[in-house]
Amino acid sequence: MLEAKNISVEAGSATLLSGVSVSLNPGEVVAVVGPNGAGKSTLLKALSGEQKVSRGEVCLENKSLTDWSRQALAKKRAVLPQQSSLEFPFSVRDVVLMGRSPHLEGGAETEVDRIIVRDALTETEVVHLEDRIYTTLSGGERQRVQLARVLVQIWNNIDSSYLLLDEPVSALDLAHQHSILKLVQKFAKNRVGVLIVLHDLNLALRYCDDVWVLRDASLVAAGKVNITLTEELIEEVFDIQVKIFTQKEQVGRQVIVAG
Amino acid sequence: MPIKQIKHTNWLLALLASSLMAIIFLAVSVGVAPLSFRQIIAILLDGSGFSSSIEFSPQQAVILLDLRLPRVLLGAFVGAGLGISGAAIQGVFRNPLAEPSLIGVSAGAALAAAFVMVVTTDLVATHVWLLPIAAFLGGGLVTWLVYQIAGRSNTATIGTLLLAGIAINAMAGAGLGLLSYLADAQQLRSLIFWMLGSLDAANWSSLGFTTLFVVVAVYGLIRLARPLNIFSLGEAEAGHLGLNPAGLKKQIVVLVALAVGASVAVAGIIGFIGLVVPHLVRLIAGPDHRLLLPASALLGAILLVLADLAARLIIAPAELPIGILTALLGAPFFLFLLLRQRRGL
Predict the structure, then answer these.
(1) pLDDT-based confidence at A87, cuts 50/70/90?
(2) What mean pLDDT is predicted for residues A155-175?
(3) What confidence score (pLDDT) does residue B4 get?
(4) What is the CATH classification number for the domain harbouring A53?
(5) Cβ <8 Å between A74 and B242
(6) Which domain range does residue A150 map to?
(7) Using N-to-C axis directions, what is the helix angle for B289-313 and B273-285, rounded to 10°?
(8) Nearest-5° Cα angle at B184, B188 to B270
(9) CA B68 from centre of chain
(10) Which end of chain B is more exposed for a tag (fewer CB within 10 A), N or C?
(11) Are B287 and A89 a contacting pair at CB < 8 A?
């Protein structure tokens, strides 16, 4: 379990997170939603260990993150940042291969690593680009390559592992948004706890088990996604009127419409 | 990297290494007093106790052993240090436009060395180590400073980097100006020539410490090739992959300062080698640091030996400061890269 125990993050005089307690279990997909600047990315960074917490503690498998070695942590959880800048002309294959580096122990990659890289490229639907130079790809293609890089990091893990994804579908077309989130769901079934920062509440409803709702650096709601996301809560948090419809053809499928 | 590419890698390094040997031979034989290939071999054999039937004059032996050979070898080591430093600096700033002299590392090293030169003239004459160590400290301090200014955010732009370089170059320039104002006539002459960059002062003792500094830097940097590859994904990303980004940066700063410090101490500021060389290597062989770093060292050595040869020949019997030559060739190349990058944005 990846757990935040009453964490606060302060930067100068600004409070980026205030007293947040959440936990992510292997096998579940959790969406983090909230308006811009609510602290979603900060929460993800705190859970990944990238951002130090001012108060409270983040624990992975009941051990404080600060007690984990970098190497052990890298084999246990993978993180996809919101933006990645790569200025050098590496091939797509080499970029994804870098995701295997925690498993190489400083040695050269093996046939197994190459197979994993190919499988991941196939799953994220960029295998046809494997010889292309990363810097020449479109935004959406880059995002899928970066996701493949993150997936290979925990690809064959026997133990439980964790995926922390900050807006993984922000640059993707409609079809790819759905195929990528389906892929992530498939990963969760394999003892992976997945945290996704999402803006599209309909995607959260469709693909996530739970939702954490943030506003002004605080957690305002958390729970099963179809119970937690009510018209009242969305109006209050996002300051926009919405209607939630339940589709007749597909039982239980809800759609949020703003306006 | 696929196995196919690794073979290809070894070929490139072998090709560069043999070209370097050939160019070193060329550079020691060409000059105001030319030496034939056979004479060079004969002098070298004679020096190591073997006699041969080929005739050469004692002057020719002096020219080869005391003047040309140390100078050409010094050029090779300085070039290797600058080439690999450029590749490492670009890697750690994750920006292909970074370069030791552009971002002020060379100027920082030069200021520290010039300070020692002017203030402790008598000590420098007897302690050859003083200058490179001062240059190492100056260069290291500047690299660290620039990184603090420009390298903080994950989206460090080339703009911030180059502006930081401008400011540091201006400060170092003011410091060097002040020192030349304080220097006496003799100090001033050597100071100016040294600031323009030259291998003229090469001798076996300066070659000794430069070799040591550069070999340590090259060895250390090549060991960091794989982490540098991962680092190019981004600082946070590298951290998530189990790397210690702060530790890597510190090691790179120290090793680059060693190489740049040693070369500035013996040869002054020779710009743009560190910019041009990694670019050429990336064009031929791609961005993998496992190949980029050793190949940049070799190509840097080749280019600097050639540039020094040109500097000796163009206005012979006088010679051009080599820093002027590399700047004349390198600065337009930099402008070209800048224009191309702007179009890409």
Answers:
(1) confident
(2) 92
(3) 45
(4) 3.40.50.300
(5) yes
(6) 2-221
(7) 130
(8) 20
(9) 19
(10) C
(11) yes
DSSP helix, strand, coil percent of chain B (3-state; round to 5): 80, 0, 20
Residue B34 pLDDT > 70: yes
| Percent over 90 (pLDDT), chain B | 28
For chain A, say whether B271 makes contact (Cβ under 8 Å): no
Q: Complex ipTM, two decimals?
A: 0.91
- Residue of B90, B233, B244, B290 to mutate, interface with A, max A Cβ within 10 Å: B233
- Considering only CB atoms, B234 lies closest to which of A70, A84, A99, namely A84
Q: Tell me: pLDDT of B45 over 50.
A: yes
- The answer, yes or no, to whether residue B340 has pLDDT greater than 90, is no
Mark which residues 59-98 of A lie under 8 Å from B by CB. 70-71, 73-75, 77-79, 81, 83-91, 94-95, 97-98
Please report whether residue A250 resides in a domain.
no
Tens digit of each residue's pLDDT (9 = 90 or more) over A231-247:
999 999 999 998 888 87
Q: Which residues contact A112 (CB under 8 A, 6 or more apart)?
A: none
Q: Which helix (H) or strand (E) covers residue A22, if one does?
A: strand A14-24
Q: Residue A131: pLDDT band by 50, 70, 90 thresholds?
A: very high
Which of A213, A148, A134, A212 has the alpha carbon at shortest distance from A184? A148
CB B241 to CB A73 under 8 A? no
Token couple for B218: 């090259």
Would residue A254 count as lying in a domain? no
CATH fold, domain B69-344, is ABC transporter involved in vitamin B12 uptake, BtuC (1.10.3470)
Query: Quick check: A153 contacting B, CB < 8 Å?
Result: yes
Q: What are the tens digits of pLDDT across the range B191-242?
A: 887 788 888 877 888 888 889 999 999 999 999 999 999 999 988 899 999 9
Of A85, A67, A77, A83, the C-alpha closest to A47 is A77
Beta-carbon count within 10 A of B164 CB? 21
Flag if B234 and A98 touch (Cβ within 8 Å).
no
Average pLDDT, chain B: 84
DSSP B271: -
For testing contact with chain A, the best of B93, B153, B226, B240 (most A CBs within 10 A): B240
Name the strands in the sheet holding A14-24, side by side, starting at the edge strand that comes first in the sequence: A14-24, A2-11, A55-60, A63-64
**Would you say residue A40 has pLDDT above 70?**
yes
Predicted confidence (pLDDT) per residue in B78-96, tens digit: 999 999 999 999 998 888 8
| B chain contacts of residue A77, beta-carbon cutoff 8 Å | 240
Number of domains in chain A: 1
Q: Is A238 part of a structural domain of the chain?
A: no
CA gap B39, B304 in Å, rounded = 24
Q: Is B205 on the interface with A (CB under 8 A)?
A: no
Distance of CA A210 to CAs A22, A25, A27, A32, A81, Å? 11, 11, 11, 9, 21
**Is residue A99 included in any domain, yes or no?**
yes
Q: Domain residue spans in chain B?
A: 69-344
- CB of B244 within 8 Å of any CB in chain A? yes
